[in-house]
């Protein structure tokens, strides 16, 4: 008789990732140690204006997480809790940078638990070196010609420069 499979802990780290920053990467690195498998899930939302397409964001994420054997990149549309159940995940992973993130995250976590009572959200505090970084600010700085080196992975820096030069 085959040995019973040890149950594996699966976590989902959802977001827009437009684009991935070193803050996201820090969370992925730390989150990957809390689960056997960490799925970084990009929301496919046609209504939300984004700088990069979902395919571009997935490509940048995939390149950035290639050193982690237990991290994969996926996409989802619709409700996050439905994706959580489809992937058989045990918890949602989210980061909190500052108190300003807290209210928004609290609302999402409560709504997700209401929609699917078994779903837990685990929060990690952003590393202090990354607590001021957001995709939004990075895009703004890059679009105004500022230096985003060290704030995003090198590939993302290159893609940002290219996208800015295409749109100017
Ligand atoms: O990186 P973001 O943009 O702050 O991520 C927000 C995200 C993707 C986690 C959130 O918008 C989400 O889960 N959207 C999916 C739709 C959904 O499930 N909505 C109900 C719970 S808020």
Q: Can you offer a commentary on this structure?
A:
The chain is of the alpha/beta class. The chain contains six helices and five strands. The protein has helices at 22-31, 54-64, 80-86, 99-115, 135-143, 154-167; strands spanning 10-15, 37-43, 71-76, 91-96, 120-125. It has a five-stranded parallel β-sheet with strand order 3-2-1-4-5, with helices on both faces. Helix 1 (22-31) links the parallel strand 1 (10-15) and strand 2 (37-43). It starts with 9 loop residues before the first strand and ends with a helix. The model has no long low-confidence stretch (mean pLDDT 94). Bound molecules: 4'-phosphopantetheine. 4'-phosphopantetheine (PNS) binds next to strand 1 and helix 4.
Detail the poorly predicted runs: none
Summarize the amount of helix as a percent range. 40-55%
Number of helices: 6
Which strand order spans the largest sheet, edge to edge or round the barrel?
3-2-1-4-5
Q: Report Rg.
A: 17 Å
Rounded average pLDDT? 94
Shape: globular
Strand % is 15-25%
- Bound heterogens, unique: 4'-phosphopantetheine
SSE class:
alpha/beta
The total strand number stands at: 5
Distance between the termini: 65 Å
Q: Largest sheet, if any? A: 5 strands, parallel
């Amino acid at each position: 008789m085959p040995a019973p499979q040890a149950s594996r802990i699966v976590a989902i780290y959802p977001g827009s990732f437009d684009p991935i920053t070193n803050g996201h990467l820090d969370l992925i690195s730390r989150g990957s140690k809390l689960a056997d498998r960490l799925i970084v899930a990009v929301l496919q939302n046609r209504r939300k204006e984004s700088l990069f397409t979902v395919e571009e964001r997935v490509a940048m994420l995939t390149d950035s997480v290639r050193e982690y054997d237990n991290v994969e990149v996926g996409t989802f549309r619709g409700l996050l809790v439905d994706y959580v159940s489809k992937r058989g995940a045990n918890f949602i992973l989210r980061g909190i940078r500052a108190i300003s993130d807290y209210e928004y995250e609290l609302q999402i976590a409560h709504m997700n638990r209401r929609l699917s009572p078994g779903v837990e959200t685990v929060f990690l505090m952003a590393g202090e070196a990354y607590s001021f970084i957001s995709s939004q600010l990075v895009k703004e700085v890059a679009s105004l010609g500022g230096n985003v080196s060290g704030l995003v992975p090198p590939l993302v820096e290159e893609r940002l420069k290219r996208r800015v030069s295409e749109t100017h």
